[in-house]
Design brief:
Blueprint lengths: L1 H7 L4 H18 L8 H7 L6 H5 L2 H6 L9 H13 L2
Helix pairs in contact: 1-2
Length: 88
Amino acid sequence: ELADYFVAKGMPFRKAHALVGNIVLFAEEKGARLDQLSIEDYRIFFPEVEPSLFTYLSARNAVERKRTQGGTGSQAVEFALHSTLKHR
């Protein structure tokens, strides 16, 4: 999801993937999870990062962005549940 955030900001995926690897190493060195890093920590790696990063990375928003058939988005899950109940 973090790489997707950077891609949404215009960064090529390959570069975003490498950047996330560096951020993960940084977090590990601090003994922190990614959600425990501050906006200032993220700005070390990507100065244009906005506080909306934390909203973007929320579990609910991450799930809702998955809008593929059979995915985890609420519409896909609701459709699957409705289809399953209909065939009982």
